[in-house]
Structure formats: C-alpha cells, structure tokens
Design brief:
The chain has 7 helices and no strands. With about 140 residues, the chain is mainly α. It has 2 domains: about 90 residues, Uncharacterised protein YqeY/AIM41, N-terminal domain (Hypothetical Protein Yqey, Chain: A, domain1), CATH 1.10.1510; about 50 residues, Arc Repressor Mutant, subunit A, CATH 1.10.10. About 15% of the residues are buried. This is GatB/YqeY domain-containing protein. InterPro entries: Asn/Gln_tRNA_amidoTrase-B-like, GatB_Yqey_C_2, YqeY/Aim41, YqeY/Aim41_N.
Length: about 140
C-alpha cells in the first residue's frame, strides 16, 4: 500500500537525517492520520493519492505567491516538496492522451457546450491522480468551441 511506502520512506529519511524530506513526508502522514481519525477507517491508496494531489496543488499555489514576492527560500522549499511528492502519484497521462479521451467522450455522448458538467463528471474519474485537474476545463472548452 502507498501509505506503508510513505511511512518507510519517512523512516529512511529520518535515518539519513534528511530534515527537509522528513518534513514533507510528515505533512502527508499527518493528513493521512487526520483522515483516518475523522472517518474512523483505514485510508485506501486512492485516498492517499487525493491527499498527495491536494498537497501538490497547495504547494504550487504557494510557489506562485513566492515567485511574485521573489522569496528564493520559499521557491526552493516548494520545488523540493514537489520533487518529493510527485513520485508517489501514478504514472501521469499526457495532454494528448487526455485530449483523445475527451474527444471520445464528446463523440459518444453527442455533447454540446451546455453539457460541460456532464463531460467533466465523466472524465474526472478516469484521470484522477494521473493528470492535473486544473488543465481539463480549458481543454474541454477548446474542444467544444
């Protein structure tokens, strides 16, 4: 399970005295623990992936602010966190693959621009954890125009 892999990597980073990596992995472990306590159940790999995706999204947003304020230290921290977290996600889909999936969905459903929500509902489960969700909406708009 992904949860155990994260824990092993966290322990290995502690033994290697890699404080930065330990810090990033502890944030993920804390989010996983919070989920398990709140839901009173063990988390699945899909749940762990969602937590990692959420953290990556927050890190990217923080990076944007850091770049705007020219905070080199925060930029370095954010880039390091992304390097640590990205390998735990499933193999990523290319834009071309997602575009082909969207074309197929649109063709099979005879969707128009008014059916944007239906298209999004159909594509999201297929790309969850495998593609940046923020890029999908513009892709759909582009294909429907």
């Amino acid at each position: 399970m992904l949860k155990e892999l994260l824990k092993k990597d966290e322990i290995a980073a502690m033994k290697a005295r890699d404080k930065a990596k330990v810090s990033v992995l502890r944030l993920i472990s804390a989010d996983i623990k919070a989920f398990e306590v709140n839901e009173r159940e063990d988390i699945s790999d899909e749940g762990v992936i969602k937590i990692i995706e959420k953290n990556i999204k927050q890190t990217r947003e923080a990076l944007e602010y850091a770049k705007q304020s020219n905070d080199e230290e925060k930029i370095a921290e954010g880039n390091f966190a992304l390097q640590v977290l990205t390998p735990y996600l499933p193999e990523q889909l290319s834009e071309e693959e997602v575009t082909n999936m969207l074309k197929e969905i649109i063709a099979n459903g005879s969707y128009t621009a008014k059916d944007m929500g239906k298209i999004m509902k159909e594509i999201m489960p297929k790309v969850s954890g495998k593609f940046d969700r923020s890029k999908i909406n513009p892709m759909v708009k582009n294909l429907l125009s």
